[in-house]
Amino acid sequence: MTSITGVDTSGSAEKSVTSKSTLGTNFNTFLTMLTTQLKHQDPLSPMDSTQFTNQLVQFSSVEQQINANSNLEKLIKLQQATQTSDSISYLNQTVEVSGSKLPLQGGAAAFSYTLPASASSCEVQIRDSSGVLVYKTQADTAAGRHDLAWDGTDSSGEKQDDGLYTVSVVAKGVDGTPLTATTTVQGTVTKVTNDATFGAMLEIGAGDDDAKVTVTPDQVLSVTANNIVGNSQLLAANAQYQAALAQLQALEAAQAEAEQAAADAAAAQ
Description:
With 269 residues, the chain is of the alpha+beta class. The chain has 2 domains: 2-89 and 235-268, no CATH class; 92-225, Immunoglobulin-like (Sandwich), CATH 2.60.40.4070. The protein has 3 helices and 13 strands; from the N terminus they run βααββββββββββββα. The chain has helices spanning 10-39, 49-87, 231-268, and strands at 2-3, 94-98, 101-104, 109-115, 119-127, 133-138, 144-150, 163-173, 178-179, 182-195, 199-204, 213-215, 220-223. Strands 1, 2, 4, 7, 10, 11, 12 and 13 form an 8-stranded antiparallel beta sheet that branches. Strands 3, 5, 6, 8 and 9 form a 5-stranded antiparallel beta sheet that branches. Strand 5 and strand 6 (133-138) form a beta hairpin. The longest helix has 39 residues, at 49-87. The chain is elongated, with a radius of gyration of 30 Å. The model is unreliable at 1-14 and 226-236 (pLDDT under 50).
């Protein structure tokens, strides 16, 4: 995974180069064997051209597929780079995401919980990265969403260090049965990275990477500040992506035509 300052595309490129190199070696070997066979064939019983014609068609098809895969890899990298560029707008912004991992930043944390029905009792608990209970409080028992804040002070009055904590809600319904509450957390995006598998990733929280919440942009429920990336930059990135997509579609159409022409030639033999 690379940061916003760089996108690693070497892996896919090396695969395409290796595939084309292997194909070229195999094709040259095939031509050498074919030439030798033609030189030594019996003039009274010439070899059947159908087999090597089909072989040529297969080589052409494989070459076109490798080229298509190479262009698809470039398109995917371009799309990931565009997503990462768009995601810069989240830097230093406060976002809300679903989950229980609570980032404490600058001695402050904010979260919410939602009860599906009225409760007879409700307790909010916060644990540190080791699972130790550091804070708990009685909370609102009404059905619906409730927003809370924590100043990083534990139950004994001691300030906790910035880092990643876990918030949970223990609630019981009016009939005494457990209620399952859903939680969301809020935090400031401090880093944008590009993952080879998942694309753009947002890191929420302070300190080391393992002390942060990592999410994709589509997991963001809300943003409480304005974008810092201008519309012109977003439009330019989108135009670049659309142009690459059109190029790939044209390549695929040309490949289909070439394969059809080769098949027609083989059928005419």
